Amino acid sequence: MSMLQRLTESRVWRALVRQGVSATNRNRILLVMDNVFLHLHSAKTRSRNLELSSTYFLGAISLVLFGILTLSGLLLMLYYHPSVPQAYHDMKELQFVVSNGLFLRNIHRWSAHAMVFIVFLHLLRVFYHKAYLPPREFNWVVGVILLLLTLGLSYTGYLLPWDQLAFWAVAVGTNMAEATPLIGPKLRYLLLGGNAVGENALLRFYVLHCALLPLALAMGVAVHLWRVRKDGGVQGSSGRYGSRRQVKP
């Protein structure tokens, strides 16, 4: 008996991989249903729906940029304190004292700019090919929400350097939010944690930028990719890929 066979027939392996690895449709479905990570994916999908070229790699580039932002953001958190005026001093030290600190900050900043641009192009690409039509209307809404979350991440990161540009950009943005009918003043107070841009606002924007919005974006991306596998992507919606009608039961 080979070493591989001994491994796959051991009690430890059978406890982890309960359904085995046989390539049958029934086994694939059982494997997906019993695994919390694989359950995000459909058991079967069209191979053309998994091709990155279906959206000119815009969706894949957006995902890669999000990964770069996550990694660089975690490294920046090691040198940053969300307090006044320490936040500004930390950014100055990161720029002039920390080895390759300016390079790390620029990677994070330019990746954020690029992600906003690429996600917007991805939205235009999907709209141009009418991939928002049934049965993909739900995934279109998820994509729009992901664009809003991306813009929210870009905006909440503005205040963190605590310089003049950050201060007045947030002051102008929250004043614009105050003009929202009915909920404007309460929305501004919720964002700032008070009536002016101060330490409460810095802490709230820090939590939004580093915890709440990235978590919401990650879950939204998981749902978005899952619906692409279930409903299909841009391919098969219009143009040179033809059209596909929704089949009603």
Automatic annotation (TrEMBL):
Arranged from A to Z, the UniProt key words for this protein are: Membrane, Transmembrane, Transmembrane helix
Gene Ontology terms describing biological process: respiratory electron transport chain
Q: Which Pfam families match?
A: Cytochrome_B
Identify the InterPro entries for this entry.
Cyt_b/b6_N (IPR005797), Cytb/b6-like_sf (IPR027387), Di-haem_cyt_TM (IPR016174)
Query: Could you name the Gene Ontology cellular component terms for this entry?
Result: membrane
**Where would I find the Cytochrome b/b6 N-terminal region profile domain in this sequence?**
21-237
Entries under Gene3D superfamilies matching the protein: Cytochrome Bc1 Complex, Chain C (1.20.810.10)
Q: Which GO terms describe its molecular function?
A: electron transfer activity; oxidoreductase activity
Question: What stretches pass through the bilayer?
Answer: 56-80, 110-128, 140-159, 205-226
Protein name, as recorded: Cytochrome b N-terminal domain-containing protein
Biological source species: Candidatus Polarisedimenticola svalbardensis
Source lineage:
Bacteria, Pseudomonadati, Acidobacteriota, Candidatus Polarisedimenticolia, Candidatus Polarisedimenticolales
